[in-house]
Amino acid sequence: MKSGILLWNKGLFRQQLRSITWIGVFLAIALAVMLPLSMFIREMTLRNDQYYGGFADYEGILNPLMEFSIPFQLIAFCSFPVLVGIILLNFMTNKSATDFFHSLPFKRGTILTNVYVTGAVTLFVPLVITGILVAILYPFLTDQFYTITNIFSWIGLSYLIMLFMFILTVTVGVFVGNALLHGALTYTVIIVPALIILLILTNLQYYVTGLALSAYTDTLLTNGIFFGRLIELTQTPFSLTEYLVYTLIAAVLVALSYLAYAKRPSEATDQTIVFTFVRYVFLYSLTLFVMLIFGFYFTEIQQGNMVWTIVGYVLGAFIAYTILQMILQKTLRLSWPWKGFIVYGVVVTLLLVPINLVAGFYEDKVPAAGEVSSVEIHSPNSRNSIWWDLEETANPALTDPEAIEMVTAIHRDMIDHEYNRSDEWSTVLINYTLEDGSTLSREYDVNHEFLKDVTADLRSTQDFKETYDPVYIASRSDNLNYMMFYSNHNSEPVRIADPDEMESLINAMKADLETMPSEELAVNWQQQTAGEVQFSMQLPYDLYAGITTEHTNTIEWFKENGYEDALFLPENIKSVTVAKSNGDEFNMMTDAIVYEQRMTPEDLDVPTIEITDSEQIQELFEINSGQRYGDYFVFFRMSNGYSFVSFDEADAPDFITSQFD
User: Fold this and answer.
1) Among 130, 241, 294, 404, which is least packed by CB within 10 angstroms?
2) Contact 633, 590 (CB under 8 A)
């Protein structure tokens, strides 16, 4: 290869620029439609509609220009740079074009430098044009929701996103010899590595009891995938550390692209992936990816046992390995390289040996209570899953030594608990902060009844109630706006906004909590409860507390304050209809009454009886087993239709069985 200019070349730049000029034009048009044109249309609407709110009261934490049409902007930022990179490196996938470029009096470094410069300029100019148009429009806007400074900030952030995508595309392009695979592999590189880690962790939970999967999931899906992190920008803008990390990654990619291009064979245009090592990485990483997906599918979606998990692994690996070999060999008449598949299978199998050895130490690790400074215990399945900042600097945690001792005892019980998927179950997370500053996290799937029983003493402690119960959280909040009471007996919720009324109601609810455990971690949201109280505070989500017949002080407060009719209590139910099931056909009619609302209990074609005695109605609700299809069904009227509870023959009272005999 002839030597030549080391860096930028004007003629080469012009030649490459001509190939992507229209891409830059289309990007400029797309950005103009998303921002200045859309702003102009909104301005016309604002001037002609006195009720149009617009962005006048913008209080977001991200740049307002970015938030104005962020979904469409992100699509543009993640597609146009990839298209530019594919077109600029298209000569690498065509033999005649490759021979032509490499016959020019330039070093390969010069060619690649011009690719980067041409792409960078093509992506930057549309941003500048859009920024100028937005600045020109600014003085004429009634709703000036952004500033001139915001324009420069938007250009900078947008350019960094597109430049990162472009650099990644160019780097991937150096390693491939097919334009179609170039685009697909670019997005694969962004998404698959984090998903492989996530799938490995997900599949590890089948072998390691207590693996704290949820502790890693959110981080991997947001910070581990660039697209996911972009979606989170409106909630959490890039930090300085993230800017530095992405800059470092981009610099490494640029250096890697120069090194790889210098060693890339000119005749590699007939190969799907150029380098042998990268070909193996492509083959086996994606085989692993699909294998783990199949294992997850057979285990989680189809609820299969370990045998079916293994079947999923083998089937997924075989399918992925075969298809990927077809891509690499560029033929459907595949010469199946069985030795590589056998080696892959042996390596994966051998990796399970150290996993099983380490699993025992991991599973049995329970810190001594004296080593723990604080502990969090909660369930993401709970009605009040406390994952957000409750006006405090850290997640709510238990610090009382007695409560910590109880959590460690619960932890030991959960290690030995084998939950039944056929029954109701929940996920429980335990996060310890130890005295030395280190942390230890575990996650368990447990059945509801087990969870309710094993946490009863903990939920009765004052430390747990003050930390996790919504009543105590609301009582100490200065931002309690109002309270709402909902029940299935009353179509309209009761709104309580008077500060004195709210304080007295909270005191009544706290009085009930003095004699009973908190329902957090063991909430039974059955429809026959008296209702639920919603606490509206300045939090991401409102908190809720259930009210049952055991909450005597709370129910008495409602009666004394004139809200008795709103309570869903047996004494407020005038009558119920009891029917005896005769099999699956009856269950289908029950669905038509309760869920589809196509029938009423009077339409049933089985014998029914009507109960009007309040004491008998009370007894039926006390023996019910929830909305399970038992031997007897109790239908009752709600504000929006019908619901039911059920019980079995063994629990049926005499006043029921005697009328059906």
Assistant:
1) 241
2) yes
What is the per-residue pLDDT for 393?
44
Q: Write out pLDDT tens, residues 260-314.
A: 888 887 656 667 788 888 888 888 889 999 998 888 888 777 766 778 888 888 8
| CA distance linking residue 349 with residue 363, whole number of Å | 21
Tokens of 41: 């249309």
Sign, CA dihedral 456-460-461-464, equals: positive
CA–CA gap between residue 279 and residue 298 (Å, rounded)? 29
Place of tokens 């003085």: 139
Amino acid, res. 44: M
Identity of the residue numbered 635: F
How do beta strands 543-547 and 490-496 pair? Answer: unpaired
DSSP of 324-383, one letter per residue? HHHHHHT-SS----HHHHHHHHHHHHHHHHHHHHHHHHHHT----GGGEEEEEEE-TTST
| 189, 226 Cβ separation under 8 angstroms | no
Cβ pair 287, 320 in contact under 8 A: yes
| Residue 608 three-state SS | strand
User: What three-state secondary structure class fits 426?
Assistant: strand
Which helix (H) or strand (E) segment holds residue 439: the answer is strand 439-447
Cα–Cα distances in angstroms (integers) from residue 59 to residues 55, 56, 149, 234, in the given order: 9, 9, 16, 11
Task: Give which of 164, 166, 220, 171 is closest to 195, Cα–Cα.
Answer: 220
Q: What is the dihedral of CA 90, 93, 97, 100, to 10 degrees?
A: 110
